[in-house]
Design brief:
Helix content is 65%, strand content 0%. By secondary structure, the chain is an all-alpha fold. Helix 2 packs across helix 3 and helix 3 crosses helix 4.
Length: 77
Amino acid sequence: MYKTLKDILERQFFGVCAYWGKYWGIRPHKIRLSFIYLSFIALGSPIIVYLIMVFLLENKEYFKLAPKKPTIWELDE
């Protein structure tokens, strides 16, 4: 049960940390801890940044400016 509850919480609440962890190659756990520590130090302002990132990740298909152009290495495929 713990495993399924953890998976549900990570998908719903920690999608930002998982995304940035995958992007930077760090464990999402460390990013979560940094958000928590920064929230205590900066009196909650990282929570606002986190909520902005959640909004952007949920609506990222609307924020794509231009289609990605293929590089010279991708033209062969």
